User: Which sequence fits this backbone?
């Protein structure tokens, strides 16, 4: 099959979203089923693309409208994008299943549109090969995210959404200024060509542009201290949306940051930016873990935990070494699985028992054993217990951090991890050894998802080899910029 | 070759099956079987390891881009066999005491963890199994007590992460993670000195923290009393008998991998290697402090918990002496502590199972009711107190000899004091639980169930065998320590002394026989009041009512009043409180919900960017 079909990854959710109003009259269930079908097809396409890219070892370059880069906009679906588009699709599909239980507030049709657009935005951010196109997709993602945060129509939701919007808005305007600076200096928006020309531009301009882009993306990527919106938004958003935020929306921002960072690696003062990022990432981990310690609301607690794990990924990317990037990608995948599992479990508990406060988790082991088991496995994995997946990626990140000479960062991150262990094990104790409860019947599809994710977590924990080799390939896709430039047919412009 | 993998994962798989099936009977059978497999495999390899042509059995697997190496060599075989012995005894004990599939799962998981730690030939596997064993044992404690388990886990994780950073530093400097390469590289570096002194000291300190926590060295021991008390006592046999030995093994590893480099970097002081001297003193302090604390306990479980800490201190002390003789003593004590303390915990398990009580004041006169358990505890008491011809004497004697011949009189004094304290607390245990007046509610107590007794017997036999024939152990250990101890199976000869275990045993049996004859033919019953042993002529008043069972060592506590005011436990609690308050401060200060301040954060970052010279 022709690789150009990969453009369906963008087209399908977009068209899917536009057609939602047509089936609005068929009722809630129909709309949810429709979303489920679209995400399932998306997953199928993404799986096909993944298989194509990993079996041929070559990226798929989609040229929009037949215009060749750098004139036209191209999609670059390399090892990283193929992997992550698949993760986006799978996570969306799972949450589309969860929608049936979790979403009851009207207007469902708007929710469905926004849901699909959120998926589209993240997919686009990951797949695009054009920096302005990246900005467009980022705006699609963040605007749908603002709307979805407010979807529950409560006071907190509106407030959280407003905060998110203000901070996100400031961030993306700075991003745009950065893009403009780089465009002014290089005369191109194509990412491969920017990488090619980065070494020649005025270092001050390049540095300022890069710094502004990183600053803008840091809001989306939830880096300290630009992540203040995140806990509120995570807590207020509908449960499936929270899981999507954590599983891939924030990752898309992180990826964009890492990608642009490494594209500009030939800029002279690049290492200064890296150092700053290391500091920010480390502080992200520390502040978020401590903030989670005495959190009474479990969903918010896990939101803090998610922020800190994202900080860990950012740290790995900011090391500027191949080992760091590989480890970061590995952690990204593992974290997506774990947080999908945790937010799904916690969200389901909140739906069934009316809220995610810690009191509702007392005796959960008796009330909802499978969900409780899923949450427990997720929590243990998040702490980094061996035989679960995050152990490997965390180990990789720490080794890479020390190897890159940031021993102090490793110290701080690990100290914060101790705190993480405390609050997660308090939660586990509350679930299994405190309180009483009657058994509540659990929904079969959700139980199936939880069990499937648990199996995945343990399987990766015991046999990480395949996923590690995938992460290495995806990591070198980001790190090896020369290869990236070579892969994009630039018609000899500028070189 | 895959037998190493089978032996490593058999307990884990068995535990998982036992947990998943959760059928009474099958659960226990699978569990016991799972613990027997490693012992079988180890027995099979005995001739390969200890024969005239010793070979190293190696197995390598690749996981997630790391090459994990598992090795069965002289040292790892020794440690793994001890752990397996205790593991089997634990499984038999748990057949009687545990009704929970949860406990079976995590008990066996920690068994796999301990074996993995001993067999690993590289730091990734070592760290993985180290974490696994910590986690599994933590889950055992979590079931009974949240507070104690978190204390244990937090300290352990701090230790584990300290180790991880040390591993990271070594990896960054050497570029390898397997023991062989690291050892060679550090040996070379001892002469080249390309790794700086301060960095070496940092690595040493980090490893010291990591292994010190697990071994329960003062001041990192505070987790031990709570954690050892708040689990199924059959499991404590393994917890204290085998799991804490991972710490001792870590210290040994420190010598093997970093010894030369540490000597080069930290130097020599008065003929003692500085780093080793630190370990020796750490051990000595642990022996004494934990010994005193053990004496003052009113709860059997707490007593033996502190006693475990104190006894593991002996091992550190022996290693810290740093001579082949010291190593022999320390490693011998690994064995003897494992078997006598394991035995003690099984006895405690039987007592808890049959009476449901743990405090001295509730016990008394049980020797008639549980005669076999009593006999077992007598063996354990003799061995722990260091009375010949038990294993405990031989190992302590070797450590003592080593300290003397290494010219460490103060350290040797600590050994002596520790032994006296050990005697003080076991005597109390012996008397208060087994002899004297029996409380009326203990009239219906039955003998311990058969599986538990089997478990005890498995541990009692080595106490006697290696006590009467200590040469068996010293000869094996001599293979890689260069035979510092002479003599034969029954006789140990060191540069400063000779100990003939067989002769002592024969004399003891002979003496006991005479005493028995006198007792049978010449003893008369006479009634004495309960307080008689203690009061020594002083009048007993209500507010100063001391008996063997109640506040027996209160005068000692009063004498130590000044020191007991300072508690590491409270220190850590306060630290934890500060951390929690700090957490609130951070959360409320930073995530304060005010969008204006959030916008200011952005401005501040931009400002920092500008100041940094980036903008």
Assistant:
């Amino acid at each position: 099959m022709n690789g150009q079909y990969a453009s369906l990854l963008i087209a399908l959710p977009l068209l899917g979203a536009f057609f939602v109003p047509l089936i609005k009259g068929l009722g809630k269930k129909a709309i949810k089923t429709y979303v489920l079908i679209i995400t399932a097809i998306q997953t199928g396409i993404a799986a096909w693309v993944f298989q194509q890219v990993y079996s041929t070892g070559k990226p798929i370059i989609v040229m929009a409208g037949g215009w060749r880069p750098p004139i036209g906009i191209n999609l670059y679906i390399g090892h990283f994008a193929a992997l992550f588009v698949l993760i986006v699709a799978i996570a969306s599909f799972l949450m589309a299943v969860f929608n049936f239980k979790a979403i009851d507030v009207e207007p469902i049709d708007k929710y469905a549109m926004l849901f699909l657009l959120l998926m589209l935005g993240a997919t686009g951010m990951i797949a695009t090969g054009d920096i302005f196109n990246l900005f467009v997709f980022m705006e699609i993602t963040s605007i749908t995210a603002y709307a979805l945060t407010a979807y529950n129509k409560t006071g907190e939701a509106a407030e959280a959404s407003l905060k998110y919007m203000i901070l996100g808005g400031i961030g993306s305007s700075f991003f745009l200024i950065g893009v403009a600076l780089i465009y002014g200096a290089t005369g191109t928006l194509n990412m491969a060509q920017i990488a090619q020309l980065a070494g020649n531009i005025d270092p001050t301009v390049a540095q300022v542009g890069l710094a502004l882009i990183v600053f803008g993306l840091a809001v989306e990527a939830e880096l300290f201290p630009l992540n203040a919106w995140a806990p509120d938004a995570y807590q207020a958003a509908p449960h499936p949306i929270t899981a999507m935020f954590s599983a891939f929306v924030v990752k898309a921002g992180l990826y964009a940051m890492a990608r642009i960072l490494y594209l500009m690696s030939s800029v002279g003062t690049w290492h200064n930016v890296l150092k700053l990022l290391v500091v920010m990432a480390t502080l992200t981990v520390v502040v978020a873990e401590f903030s989670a310690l005495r959190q009474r609301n479990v969903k918010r607690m896990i939101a803090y935990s998610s922020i800190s794990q994202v900080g860990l990924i950012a740290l790995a990317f900011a090391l500027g070494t191949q080992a760091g990037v590989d480890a970061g990608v590995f952690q990204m995948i593992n974290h997506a699985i774990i947080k999908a599992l945790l937010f799904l479990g916690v969200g389901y508990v909140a739906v069934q028992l009316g809220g995610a406060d810690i009191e509702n988790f007392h005796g959960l082991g008796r009330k909802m054993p499978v969900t409780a088991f899923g949450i427990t496995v997720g929590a243990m994995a998040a702490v980094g217990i061996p035989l679960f997946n995050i152990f490997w990626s965390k180990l990789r990140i720490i080794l890479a951090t020390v190897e890159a000479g940031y021993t102090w960062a490793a110290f701080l991150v690990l100290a914060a991890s101790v705190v993480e262990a405390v609050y997660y094990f308090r939660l586990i104790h509350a679930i299994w050894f405190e309180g009483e409860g009657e058994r509540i019947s659990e929904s079969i599809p959700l139980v199936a998802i939880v069990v499937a994710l648990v199996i995945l977590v343990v399987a990766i924990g015991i046999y990480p080899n395949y996923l590690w080799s995938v992460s290495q390939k995806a990591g070198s896709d980001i790190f090896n910029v020369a290869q990236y430039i070579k892969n994009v047919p630039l018609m000899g412009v500028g070189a | 070759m895959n037998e190493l993998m089978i032996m490593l994962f058999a307990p884990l798989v068995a535990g998982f099956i036992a947990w998943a099936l959760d059928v009474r009977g099958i659960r226990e059978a699978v569990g016991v079987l799972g613990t027997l497999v490693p012992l079988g495999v180890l027995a099979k390899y005995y001739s390969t390891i200890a024969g005239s042509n010793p070979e190293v059995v190696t197995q390598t697997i690749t996981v997630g881009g790391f090459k994990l190496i598992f090795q069965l060599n002289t040292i790892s075989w020794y440690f793994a066999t001890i752990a397996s012995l205790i593991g089997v005894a634990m499984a038999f004990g748990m057949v009687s005491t545990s009704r929970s599939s949860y406990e079976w799962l995590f008990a066996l998981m920690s068994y796999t963890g301990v074996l993995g730690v001993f067999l690993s030939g590289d730091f990734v596997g070592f760290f993985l199994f180290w974490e696994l064993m910590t986690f599994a044992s933590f889950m055992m404690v979590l079931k009974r007590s949240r507070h104690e388990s978190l204390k244990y886990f937090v300290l352990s994780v701090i230790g584990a992460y300290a180790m991880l950073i040390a591993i990271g530093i070594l990896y960054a400097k050497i570029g390898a993670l397997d023991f062989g390469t690291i050892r060679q590289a550090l040996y070379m570096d001892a002469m080249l000195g390309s790794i700086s002194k301060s960095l070496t000291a940092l690595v040493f300190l980090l490893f010291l923290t990591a292994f010190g926590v697990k071994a329960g060295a003062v001041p990192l021991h505070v987790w031990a009393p709570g954690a050892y008390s708040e689990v199924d006592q059959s499991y404590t046999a393994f917890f204290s008998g085998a799991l804490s030995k991972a710490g001792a093994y870590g210290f040994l590893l420190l010598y093997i991998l970093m010894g030369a480099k540490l000597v080069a970097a930290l130097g020599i002081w008065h003929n003692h290697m500085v780093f080793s001297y630190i370990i020796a003193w750490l051990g000595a302090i642990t022996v004494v402090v934990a010994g005193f604390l053990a004496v003052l306990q009113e709860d059997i479980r707490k007593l033996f918990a502190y006693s475990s800490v104190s006894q593991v201190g002996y091992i550190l002390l022996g290693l810290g002496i740093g001579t082949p003789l010291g190593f022999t003593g320390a490693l011998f004590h690994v064995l003897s502590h494992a078997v006598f303390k394991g035995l003690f915990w099984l006895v405690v398990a039987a007592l808890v199972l049959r009476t449901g009580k743990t405090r001295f004041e509730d016990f008394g006169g049980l020797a008639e009711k549980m005669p076999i358990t009593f006999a077992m505890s007598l063996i354990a008491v003799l061995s722990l107190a260091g009375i010949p011809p038990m294993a405990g004497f031989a190992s302590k004697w070797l450590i003592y000899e080593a300290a003397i011949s290494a010219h460490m009189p103060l350290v040797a004094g600590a050994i002596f004091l520790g032994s006296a304290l050990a005697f003080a607390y076991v005597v109390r245990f012996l008397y208060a639980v087994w002899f004297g007046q029996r409380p009326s509610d203990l009239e219906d107590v039955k003998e311990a169930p058969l599986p538990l007794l089997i478990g005890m017997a498995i541990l009692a036999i080595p106490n006697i065998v290696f006590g009467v024939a200590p040469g068996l152990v010293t000869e094996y250990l001599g293979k890689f320590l260069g035979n510092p101890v002479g003599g034969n199976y029954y006789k140990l000869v060191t540069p400063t002394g000779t100990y003939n275990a067989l002769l002592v045993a024969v004399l003891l049996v002979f003496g006991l026989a005479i005493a028995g004859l006198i007792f049978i033919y010449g003893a008369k019953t006479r009634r004495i009041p309960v307080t008689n042993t203690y009061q020594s002529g002083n009048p007993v008043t209500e507010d100063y009512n001391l008996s063997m069972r109640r506040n027996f060592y209160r005068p000692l506590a009063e004498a130590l009043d000044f020191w007991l005011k300072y508690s590491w436990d409270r220190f850590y609690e306060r630290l934890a409180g500060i951390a929690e308050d700090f957490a609130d401060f951070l959360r409320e200060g930073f995530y304060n919900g005010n969008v204006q301040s959030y916008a200011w954060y952005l401005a501040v970052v931009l400002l920092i960017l500008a100041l940094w010279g980036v903008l």
